[in-house]
Amino acid sequence: MKPTLVILAAGMGSRYGGLKQLDEVGPNGEAIIDYSLYDAIRAGFGKVIFVIRTDFAEAFKDRFEPKLSGRIDVGYVYQSLDKIPEGAIIHPEREKPWGTSHATLMAETAVNEPMAVINADDFYGNKAYHVMADFLKSSTDENEYSMVGYNVANTLSEFGSVSRGVCNMNKNGNLTTVVERTKIKRDDDGIFYYENDERFKLEENTPVSMNFWGLKPNVFKYLNEGLKEFLEQHGNELKSEYYIPFMINDNIVKGKITTKVLQCDSPWFGVTYREDKPIVQNRIKELIESGDYTNDLWI
């Protein structure tokens, strides 16, 4: 069975200042998603599910369906505030959904096979998709998950702080904890994350999650349980989010899942801020010149 790629693309890009999921970074107008799709197809993924907002639907279909027709099966699901566990109480002025775990849960009706989940605006590299596809095709334990790990030093932005899932592993290469840190940046004396007006040092090679997860179909059970519990505690908050690392960490601690950290030397880069765009464009140009990609992906 071929695995499915779930692309989380419902965010508004408030720090970026626009719909960065479709912003053009390649020489022929390609977005980062184009390279993700191209790599996933080469790695053997059989289906892609876009998690988007209804007001993005026409733009996504017009952009990707002509390119993907005959190459990979395509589906769409829609993230919205009303798609929450029955009985959950939320703040009446809440405007945004609850982040990556909530977004992944939207794919429950569309995915019945092992899946990889990625961010729409992150470039993960060709080798990362092959490593993930190999894991999803070979792992037979329904409670064995995975993630692609990157060194924190290679995932920062020059233009502001970033959010990363900071990982600890055991001797077998499995996660023991993954904790979402929402304010990580490089200072003059090293890399630090900030919490409650204090700062804490991270080593350059600290492994972090860039939200490239390998999940099994039973993840939707864990996501439903976790979101229900999260909303019981935080439903009245205007801006709290339920990230995938929250769900992963909770279920590792409870002994319900294991999560293998997959190592590869693929490059990672992304567009957290608009100022990141020229850097991304230059990195892609270098990869084309080195032969990793053709000048026009979809010819």
As residue ranges, the low-confidence spans are none
CATH architecture title: Alpha-Beta Complex
The CATH C-level class name = Alpha Beta
Strand percent estimate: 25-35%
Mean pLDDT: 92
Describe the largest sheet.
Answer: 11 strands, mixed
Classify the helix fraction into a percent range. Answer: 25-40%
Number of domains: 1
Q: C-alpha Rg, in Å?
A: 18 Å
Count of alpha/pi helices: 7
Describe the global form.
Answer: globular
Key descriptive features of the protein:
Spore Coat Polysaccharide Biosynthesis Protein SpsA, Chain A, two-stranded antiparallel sheet
3D architecture notes:
- The strands form 2 sheets. Strands 1, 2, 3, 4, 6, 7, 8, 9, 10, 11 and 12 form an 11-stranded mixed beta sheet that branches. Strands 5-13 form a two-stranded antiparallel sheet.
- Strand 9 (190-195) and strand 10 (198-202) form a beta hairpin.
- It has helices at residues 32-43, 57-68, 99-105, 126-138, 219-234, 244-253, 277-289; strands at 4-8, 47-52, 73-78, 115-119, 122-123, 144-151, 162-169, 175-187, 190-195, 198-202, 207-215, 258-262, 269-270.
- The longest helix is centred in the C-terminal third of the chain and has 16 residues, at 219-234.
- The protein has one domain (4-149, 209-289): Spore Coat Polysaccharide Biosynthesis Protein SpsA, Chain A (Alpha-Beta Complex), CATH 3.90.550.10.
- The two termini are 27 Å apart.
- Helix 1 crosses helix 4, helix 3 crosses helix 6 and helix 5 crosses helix 6.
- The chain is built from 7 helices and 13 strands.
- It is globular and about 50 Å long.
- With 299 residues, the chain is an alpha/beta fold.
